[in-house]
């Protein structure tokens, strides 16, 4: 049997760096809690930051969500936040808006059939 490894990352997307991580042979709440605790400590208990995760049960656990609430972290689960995140590399608009503007410009120039 091939062993599996899992990694939880907490990424600061504005500085493009990993601020919390944990590797484990089990994907469970302890693994993601370790990554979250490292990120919170690394960022000196930041307030009003956004945390986006998938719908994995470990990210929806009471321990995890309570820790984020106690730390002042704003949570989003799933893909709805993707439309809201602003990126400096694309002019501080959401990826959704950037793509829409791109295709609108193509349509105006007649390059899209």
Automatic annotation (TrEMBL):
Keywords: Plasmid
Residues in Integrase catalytic domain copies: 6-73
UniProt-listed GO biological process terms: DNA integration
InterPro entries: Integrase_cat-core, RNaseH-like_sf, RNaseH_sf, Transposase_IS3/IS150/IS904
GO molecular function, one term: nucleic acid binding
Record-linked PANTHER family: TRANSPOSASE INSF FOR INSERTION SEQUENCE IS3B-RELATED, TRANSPOSASE INSO FOR INSERTION SEQUENCE ELEMENT IS911B-RELATED
Name of the protein described by the UniProt record: Integrase catalytic domain-containing protein
């Amino acid at each position: 049997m091939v062993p599996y490894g899992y990694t939880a990352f907490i990424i600061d997307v504005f500085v493009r760096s990993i601020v919390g991580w944990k590797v484990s042979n089990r994907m469970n709440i302890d693994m993601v809690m370790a990554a979250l605790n490292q990120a919170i400590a690394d960022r000196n208990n930041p307030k009003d930051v956004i945390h986006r995760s998938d719908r994995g049960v470990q990210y929806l656990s009471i321990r995890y969500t309570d820790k984020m609430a106690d730390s002042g972290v704003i949570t989003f689960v799933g893909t709805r936040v993707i439309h809201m995140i602003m990126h400096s590399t694309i002019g501080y608009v959401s990826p959704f808006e950037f793509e829409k503007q791109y295709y609108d410009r193509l349509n105006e120039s007649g390059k899209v059939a």
